[in-house]
Specification:
The chain is 33% helix and 13% strand. The model has no long low-confidence stretch (mean pLDDT 94). The protein is built from 9 helices and 7 strands; from the N terminus they run ββαβββββαααααααα. A hairpin with a 2-residue loop joins strand 3 and strand 4. It comes from Kribbella pittospori.
Length: 247
């Protein structure tokens, strides 16, 4: 195995560049190094001006998402040896405005996320002394998969619908809404219905499935969206047949 590998990194300096350009760097090719380690080597030893996001280095925080050889990946969980002999092309996540180099503006996602109320909603909160809201293993299993989302936004980068129409609420936000809709402790499904069943919600999804393929945590946002389509259609039919009934 070679001692080094070439990283072709997208560079963009606001106010100086009109579009990103690729810059090549030679970094050590070590078996245990992830792409993020290679970028850190560049930052520490070759070019201190390189900008990128990272935090936990353990695939938990979701902040180090990038496009690696055309695919959205967590750079802390994508290893250099998987791309040997190289080169490896590293670009910012697609479908987001680039702030600088590999750093993208996530404001659109952050604006959309609270619209689906990704938290437990209850009409009445029982006093603490009455105990916890207990769940059975079956009730936990119903939503647990969707609770694994780490807000890395790889699914948005992979989504062809979001690429064409950024009014689309998006796969992660919808999956997180389903995480709470399916939680036995939650009473906020009706409050989320208007956003999720709007033209910018689930009905924009054409079920390409790229979001689920890109998800590093197996959340399956495409599955969450299709499941909620059935719920929304059922609610609509109930509304026609039984106008006074909302559940």
């Amino acid at each position: 195995m070679a001692d080094e590998i070439t990283l072709e990194v997208a560079r963009f300096r606001p106010g100086e560049d009109t579009e990103p350009v690729l810059q090549s760097y030679q970094v050590p090719l070590r078996e245990q190094w992830a792409v993020l380690d290679g970028l850190s080597y560049i930052k520490d030893h070759l070019d201190g001006t390189l900008s990128f996001r990272w935090s936990c280095r353990m695939g938990i925080c979701g902040s180090c998402g990038m496009t690696v050889n055309g695919d959205p990946q967590l750079s802390c969980a994508t290893f250099l040896t998987d791309y040997a002999p190289g080169p490896i092309r590293i670009e910012p996540l697609h479908n987001f405005p680039v702030i600088r180099d590999l750093v993208v503006d996530i404001g659109d996602f952050m604006d959309k996320l609270p619209t689906v109320k990704p938290w437990l909603v209850r009409d009445v909160h029982s006093p603490l002394e009455e105990g916890e809201y207990l769940q059975t293993p079956e009730e936990l299993e119903d939503y647990q998969q969707f609770s694994m989302c780490i807000n890395c936004m790889l699914c948005y980068s992979a989504c062809p619908v979001y690429a064409l129409d950024q009014d689309f609420v998006g796969p992660a936000a919808i999956a997180l809404a389903q995480r709470y809709n399916l939680d036995s402790r939650d009473e906020g499904a009706d409050e989320r219905l208007a956003v999720l069943s709007s033209p910018e919600g689930i009905w924009s999804c054409t079920f390409v499935g790229e979001c689920s393929a890109a998800c590093p945590k197996g959340v399956d946002p495409a599955g969450a969206i299709q499941r909620y389509k059935l719920t929304a259609a059922t609610q609509a039919i109930k509304g026609l047949l039984m106008p006074r009934s909302r559940r």
